[in-house]
């Protein structure tokens, strides 16, 4: 039994390696270049948001925002819990005199509005085409057990009143800090009070970045010998980003592969070898993770004025540790 499993695994690995060996390296390189260009273009929108939150700061330049974003995005591939985002904020904090971390963190909100809307549109498109599995029977839907509340209404009411009272007392005790925090957060989303600037200075750049990203996916698909049509490229983008919007397929790799396998049949009219889809999915993911890490080390080295990638990574880890320690002390 175990021997059969090992032989099956070895056969699958040999098949994937054989498919990977047929990848066009020049097209793969072009896909990487377009991907990095898309990342760089997207940072221009975030720079507009930061300039609205901190107007008139001469020490913050576009290249600083770009370096912070690329460094954090690359480190997110190896640091759990999106620790790379902390590196983004830390690098910007060094460039903006008097900057506060809550304000910098709040700039993520307008920066993700367009991306969330676009990703949701992709999910809706995938749902309407039947590419995403959804619950179809009551037994598949989550349910909330309220029997305890029904059986003990008086106790439940007392506990509810106590929780509300404690919450109100905590608010009265901390309302000054809450008001100060609210003001800092409002500063971070200042761009939203200027809709025209948001559209022209943020959403437009992000839309262009998405368009370039579609081109990058098309080139990668051509490099991995997958069928390239407008519909299949959109399908791949939906599969890559859909799991971030809803906790269904393609939240796991298996469901993502199933979605692509079924989607290619529906969009092209013929089946695509699952080995080719698997090689594409994991090959592109691994390639972009390595490239992102290399770019992150270069961006960190440039911002920290050091040529040593190891020193840059160690400094980033120290910054994350200090930030988390400060949060723990503030909550204590």
From TrEMBL:
Gene Ontology cellular-component annotations: plasma membrane
Q: Where in the cell is it found?
A: Cell membrane
Q: Per the annotation, which location comes first and is thus the protein's main one?
A: membrane
Record key words, sorted: Cell membrane, Membrane, Transmembrane, Transmembrane helix
**Spans traversing the lipid bilayer:** 20-41, 104-128, 148-171, 277-300
Its membrane topology is listed as: Multi-pass membrane protein
Keyword Iron-sulfur present in the record's keywords: the answer is no
What Pfam families would the database entry show?
LPG_synthase_TM
Q: What is the name listed in the Swiss-Prot or TrEMBL entry for this protein?
A: Flippase-like domain-containing protein
Record the organism: Baekduia soli
């Amino acid at each position: 039994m175990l021997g059969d499993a090992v032989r099956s695994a070895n056969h699958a690995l040999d098949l994937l390696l054989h498919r990977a060996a047929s990848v066009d390296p020049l097209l793969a390189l072009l896909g990487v270049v377009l991907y990095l260009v898309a990342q760089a273009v997207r940072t221009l929108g975030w720079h507009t948001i930061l300039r609205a939150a901190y107007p008139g700061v001469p020490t913050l330049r576009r290249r600083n925002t770009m370096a912070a974003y690329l460094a954090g995005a690359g480190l997110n591939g190896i640091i759990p819990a999106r620790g790379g985002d902390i590196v983004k904020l830390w690098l910007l904090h060094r460039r903006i005199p008097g900057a506060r971390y809550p304000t910098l963190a709040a700039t993520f909100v307008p920066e993700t509005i367009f991306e969330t809307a676009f990703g949701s549109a992709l999910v809706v498109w995938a749902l309407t085409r039947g590419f995403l599995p959804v619950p179809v029977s009551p037994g598949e839907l989550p349910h909330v057990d309220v029997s305890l509340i029904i059986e003990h209404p008086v106790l439940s009411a007392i506990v509810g009143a106590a929780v509300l009272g404690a919450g109100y007392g905590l608010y009265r005790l901390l309302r000054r800090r809450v008001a100060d925090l609210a003001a800092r957060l409002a500063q971070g989303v200042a761009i939203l009070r200027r809709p025209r600037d948001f559209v022209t200075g943020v959403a437009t750049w992000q839309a262009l970045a998405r368009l370039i990203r579609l081109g990058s996916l098309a080139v990668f698909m051509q490099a991995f010998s997958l069928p390239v049509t407008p519909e299949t490229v959109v399908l791949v983008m939906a599969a890559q980003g859909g799991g971030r919007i809803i906790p269904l397929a393609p939240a796991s790799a298996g469901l993502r592969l199933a979605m692509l396998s079924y989607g290619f049949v529906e969009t092209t009219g013929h089946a695509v070898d699952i080995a080719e889809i698997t090689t594409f999915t994991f090959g592109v993911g691994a390639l972009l993770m390595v490239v992102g890490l290399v770019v992150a080390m270069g961006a960190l080295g440039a911002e920290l004025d050091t040529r040593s990638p190891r020193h840059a990574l160690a400094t980033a880890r120290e910054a994350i540790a200090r930030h988390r320690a400060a949060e723990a002390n503030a909550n204590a």
